[in-house]
Specification:
Layout lengths: L7 H7 L5 H12 L9 H10 L4 H17 L1 H4 L7 H8 L1 E5 L9 E7 L9 H19 L5 E6 L5 H5 L3 H13 L5 E7 L5 H8 L5 H4 L2 E4 L2 H7 L16 H13 L2 H9 L14 H5 L12
Parallel strand pairs: 2-3, 3-4, 4-5
Antiparallel strand pairs: 1-2
Helix pairs in contact: 2-3, 2-4, 3-4, 6-7
């Protein structure tokens, strides 16, 4: 079906701090960068709003965004929902931007495995699913005042830890903090697993202080409800949102029905041969050459 973008007129009307002249300036700048793909007005809006209306910060974010996506096709490329590997990844997890917002008007990205078989788990593809759903939501609904990533760890076993790649984790956290056009307010986990210390040992080296300070591990549901009100959550947790089963079917349908959008995303790549000055390479961006080649688990 044809992809329906968010209404720019409504976005401008609802956000007086977002100036059309600033958006045009940012879009014009992007169009003058020979190595970057052409960006839409809505994309310029998303980057400018996520960078709190700083044009210079948005320029850096745009360059980081397309550079990372081009350099990491194993994580961000081939966004065709009909891809067999992606199809498997979609079937083992639910990702949903919950319909209700927090009292601070933040949107909640809810993530949970629904199949606990670690043999089916593919870390880069789970990141790709998260990114596809989040970017699709932003393009359908417009920018968000803030976003919370909420992960239910129930069903995660030690075998999943062994499937993690430190290199992929480093790339993901760079993308999440330096490139993705969202205002990330917190990263929250509940139903904590006994080996959470090992997961944190992998994550923390790649997290900036701001994100570390907004990392929450909820050992009780009461603790979770103090941050994310119970009413926002799916029925499975006593909330008023639809059940996990319904959310999962909607997640699969959203990806399946918006192939046109994902084809457009796949087409937006960087041409390093045209970058002004010295072309970038993956080692320069991530510093992964000869480092973190193997995950060691005690």
């Amino acid at each position: 079906m044809p992809f329906q973008e968010a209404d720019l007129g409504v976005i401008y009307q609802n956000d007086p701090s977002l100036k059309p002249a600033d958006v045009k300036s940012l879009q014009d700048w992007a169009h003058l960068q020979p190595h970057l793909p052409k960006i839409t007005e809505l994309q310029a809006v998303l980057f400018l709003q996520s960078c709190y209306y700083s044009n210079e910060m948005a320029k850096t974010s745009i360059d980081n965004y397309f550079t990372v996506k081009t350099m990491c096709p194993d994580i961000f490329g081939n966004r065709n929902p009909d891809n067999s590997q992606l199809h498997t990844a979609v079937n083992i997890m639910v990702i949903s931007v919950l319909p209700k917002q927090t009292p601070d008007e933040y949107s909640v990205i809810f993530i949970k495995l629904i199949n606990s078989d670690p043999d089916l788990y593919n870390y880069p593809l789970q990141i790709r699913c998260f990114d596809m759903l989040t970017l699709l939501t932003l393009h359908r609904e417009g920018p968000k005042k803030g976003m919370i990533i909420l992960v239910d760890m129930k069903g995660i076993v030690f075998g999943h830890l062994l499937k993690l790649s430190v290199v992929v984790m480093k790339k993901f956290f760079y993308y999440l903090q330096e490139a993705m056009p969202i205002r990330l307010k917190s990263l929250e986990f509940f139903n904590i697993v006994p080996f959470m210390d090992k997961i944190l040992a992998l994550m923390k080296p790649f997290m900036k202080k701001e994100l570390l300070d907004s990392l929450y591990l909820h050992t009780t549901m009461e603790s979770l409800y103090s941050r994310v009100p119970k009413d926002l959550l799916p029925q499975d947790y006593g909330g008023s949102c639809e059940s996990l089963g319904v959310l999962h079917e909607k997640f699969k349908a959203l990806l399946r029905d918006n192939q046109e959008f994902f084809t457009f995303e796949d087409s937006q790549v960087v041409d390093e041969s045209l970058r002004p000055g010295k072309p970038k390479n993956i080692n320069e961006v991530f510093g992964v050459d000869g480092t973190f080649k193997k995950l060691e688990v005690d």
